[in-house]
Design a protein that fits this description.
Layout (H helix, E strand, L loop, with lengths): L2 H4 L6 H17 L2 H12 L3 H17 L1 H10 L2 H25 L4 H24 L10 H29 L2 H19 L17 H13 L2 H31 L2 H23 L7 H10 L2 H9 L3 H29 L5 H13 L2 H15 L1 H18 L4 H4 L11
Helix pairs in contact: 2-8, 2-9, 3-8, 3-9, 4-7, 4-11, 4-17, 5-7, 5-16, 6-7, 6-9, 7-16, 8-9, 8-12, 8-15, 10-16, 11-12, 11-16, 11-17, 11-18, 12-15, 13-15, 13-18, 14-15, 14-18, 17-18
């Protein structure tokens, strides 16, 4: 694939505005997790409290994902994202104001993050499934890579900037930036024009029937449900071990700013891999992707055994590259093999299965760390993480899924 072909999606007007919206919202979102984590720890210096706030966002996200998938398959996906971004900006703005003003209480953060999670349940399926409507099929890989590049590039500096803001002027400032970017992104999405689909032959809207249609596609696609089942476990570990215990271990060892560097290292690995994937296509995307995911066990293990900043940064860099291989491979597998008319619902079942155990991980890892100590919990989690990622490759459906097309563009 030539460099010209790699950037061809940006010549499409609709994709260009969608890309701008993602670029702007991601700039703030990369600051939000660190800012929110340390805001909660300032209010209540407890890993359990942090887990409660994170779970408050995850639980409604999981509960309403299937409804969000139906909505995104029925309504203009650009409109769904516009409204969702607007509401996300408003809720995050209130959180920022409470934190900056010093009036934040734990129950307020829990309630507002629950609203934010509900909003995300509608936007996630629409955002994940809209790309095939914005670019020609031959441009799916470069389009997904460019979108991933926005996340990787901004994630390099976002966590570090957030950590610096936390140390200097407080976590509320980073949360305020995140709120502003959601609002600006919503404005960008008003310029996205998606052609109306012909629904003359469609049956009348029926939530139950449409959910069943999505389930039929999900359960009948072996590679899809196997990988989603694996990610139910992987994401629970990631949310609990990395994002709940991780900041606590960092605060007790190499500090908040060091944790920002660690998270940024993952983003650097991700970004460099996106550059590689602008030029390279994997014949078996899920095979490469699950091997890449297994790499994340290394920083988990190091965080538990000996949390030294520089080695941890190196391991997280490699893990980020591996995660990016999976991310692109998964997007292509879904967008090339699932019919567009049911793609949002397929993504919603994917997200439901992948995210359903995240609140459990967020809630239990804090108490587990207090009972057994972070070291033992993190080491055990690392072993399980690697085992689950690699066990998926025993499925021929996962291991041998090939690209629907490996376009040869000069």
């Amino acid at each position: 694939m030539s460099w010209s072909a790699s950037f061809a999606p940006l010549r499409e007007t609709n994709f260009r505005w969608f890309f701008a919206a993602r670029l702007i919202s991601t700039a703030g979102s990369m600051m939000a997790p660190i800012a929110l984590a340390f805001a909660v720890l300032d209010v209540s210096n407890s890993a359990a409290a942090l887990g409660q706030v994170l779970a408050a966002r995850s639980i409604p996200l999981v509960l309403f994902l299937l409804v969000g998938g139906v909505i995104a398959d029925r309504i203009d996906r650009a409109l769904v994202m516009q409204v969702s971004n607007l509401l996300a900006g408003l809720t995050q703005g209130i959180v920022a104001w409470l934190v900056i003003s010093g009036q934040a209480e734990l129950w307020q953060l829990i309630a507002l993050e629950a609203v934010n999670g509900t909003v995300s349940a509608a936007s996630f399926p629409a955002m994940s499934s809209v790309v095939p409507q914005l670019v020609p099929r031959s441009q799916l890989q470069p389009a997904n890579v460019l979108l991933s590049m926005t996340r990787g590039g901004l994630a390099i500096i976002g966590p570090s900037v957030a950590a610096i803001l936390v140390v200097t002027v407080g976590s509320g400032c980073a949360l305020a930036v995140d709120a502003a970017t959601w609002l600006i992104a919503s404005l960008c999405l008003t310029r996205v024009r998606i052609p109306r689909r012909d629904r003359s032959g469609d049956a009348p809207p029926n939530m139950i029937r449409e959910l069943k249609e999505g389930w039929t596609v999900f359960s009948g696609t072996t590679w899809l449900w196997i990988v989603v089942l694996a990610f139910g476990i992987l994401n629970a570990i990631h949310a609990g071990a990395w994002f709940t215990l991780g900041p606590v271990v960092a605060k007790a060892t190499f500090g908040e700013q060091g944790w920002g560097y660690v998270v940024s290292a993952e983003a650097i690995g991700l970004l460099l891999m996106t550059v590689v994937m602008l030029r390279v296509s994997f014949r078996f995307p899920l095979r490469a992707g699950m091997v890449g995911m297994a790499c994340f066990a290394a920083p988990l293990m190091m965080l538990g055994l000996d949390p030294q900043l520089l080695p941890l940064v190196g391991a997280t860099f490699i893990a980020g590259a591996g995660v990016e291989v999976f991310s692109i491979g998964w997007s292509l597998a879904m967008q090339e093999n699932i019919d567009e008319s049911v793609l949002s619902r397929a993504y919603s079942y994917d997200a439901l299965g992948s995210f359903v155990a995240m609140p459990l991980g967020q809630l239990v890892y804090g108490p587990l760390g207090e009972w057994f100590g972070p070291r033992d919990v993190l080491v055990t989690s690392a072993v399980v993480y690697a085992a689950v990622a690699l066990l998926t490759l025993t499925s021929r459906s996962v291991r041998n899924l090939e690209r629907a097309q490996l376009e040869k563009v000069s």
